[in-house]
């Protein structure tokens, strides 16, 4: 499942939904809004159609590169408070040794290519988070 | 022809989330970007340097496919196309 949502994300429900009898490992990454230097809230914005396509591409790449059975990615957008879940990635596999690097591959690629942005709000003002770029300066 | 331009994050705050730009039939992506930049007072400085080159942190998509800087001049447009302009991504 690839989803971009305004709703709260339930990581436990996603893990249960992903599980099949063949899976011995479900490696899960949960990205959370961190209390960073007085952060009050965070606003996440997406180019939704392109982000959905890019997430699907990353899932397909991970499935090709690693001996895994499934990749589920749910990314939240909208306004989030400290402690709320931004993102859940669930990688299902027969064995952990493939599931761990596959999960890391998905989050690393996501941060490089998926058109989603964060704006941080603090008492002193607001600021867009500087993103990663694949282009040379 | 009419081309839809969508802007995100910092560029959305400058240009608005969406504009439809009317262009001559033969116009390419470079022509579109200049016209789009001129749509706001601070638009040109947001996208181009003093020599008229696209700033390195401006990312472009044409019909949801990335366009590298070197390809901007050679990218032809058609009526109904969608171009997106945004800063480097920061999700996850």
Question: Could you please describe the fold and organization of this structure?
Answer:
The complex is a heterodimer of chains A (137) and B (92). With 137 residues, chain A is of the alpha+beta class. Chain A has one domain (2-123): Molybdopterin biosynthesis MoaE subunit (Aldehyde Oxidoreductase, domain 3, Alpha-Beta Complex), CATH 3.90.1170. Helix content of chain A is 32%, strand content 36%. Chain A is built from three helices and eight strands. Chain A has helices spanning 11-18, 48-65, 96-113; strands at 2-5, 25-32, 41-46, 70-76, 78-81, 85-93, 116-122, 125-128. In chain A, the strands form two sheets. Chain A has a four-stranded mixed beta sheet with strand order 1-4-6-2, with helices on both faces. A four-stranded antiparallel beta sheet of chain A has the order 5-3-7-8. In chain A, helix 2 (48-65) runs antiparallel to helix 3. The mean pLDDT of chain A is 95. Chain B has 92 residues and is α+β, with helices and mostly antiparallel strands. Chain B has one domain (2-86): Beta-grasp domain (Ubiquitin-like (UB roll)). Helix content of chain B is 22%, strand content 25%. Chain B contains three helices and five strands, in the order βαβααβββ. In chain B, strands 2-1-5-3-4 form a five-stranded mixed beta sheet. In chain B, a hairpin with a 2-residue loop joins strand 3 and strand 4 (65-67). The chains are: A alpha+beta (137), B alpha+beta (92). Chain A binds chain B through residues 31, 44-47, 49-51, 53, 75, 86-87, 107, 110-119, 128-133, 135-137, and chain B through 6, 8-10, 12, 56-57, 59, 61, 64, 68-69, 84, 86-92.
């Amino acid at each position: 499942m690839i989803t971009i949502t305004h709703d709260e994300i339930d990581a436990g429900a996603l893990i249960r939904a992903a599980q099949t009898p063949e899976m011995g490992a479900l490696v899960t990454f949960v990205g959370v809004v961190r209390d960073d230097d007085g952060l009050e809230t965070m606003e996440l914005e997406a180019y939704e159609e392109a982000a959905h396509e890019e997430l699907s591409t990353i899932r397909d790449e991970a499935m090709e590169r690693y001996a895994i059975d499934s990749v589920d990615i749910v990314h939240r957008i909208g306004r989030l408070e400290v402690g709320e879940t931004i993102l859940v990635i669930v990688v299902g596999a027969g064995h952990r040794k493939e599931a761990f690097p596959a999960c890391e591959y998905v989050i690393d690629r996501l941060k490089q290519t998926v058109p989603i942005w964060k704006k941080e709000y603090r008492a002193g003002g607001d600021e867009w988070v500087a993103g990663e770029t694949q282009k040379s300066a | 022809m009419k081309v839809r331009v969508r802007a995100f994050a910092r560029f959305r705050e400058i240009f608005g989330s969406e504009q439809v730009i009317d262009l001559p039939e033969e116009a390419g992506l470079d022509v579109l970007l200049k016209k789009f930049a001129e749509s706001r007072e601070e638009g040109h400085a947001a996208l181009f340097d003093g020599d008229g080159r696209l700033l390195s942190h401006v990312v472009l998509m044409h019909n949801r496919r990335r366009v590298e800087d070197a390809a901007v001049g050679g990218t032809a447009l058609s009526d109904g196309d969608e171009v997106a302009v945004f800063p480097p991504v920061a999700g996850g």
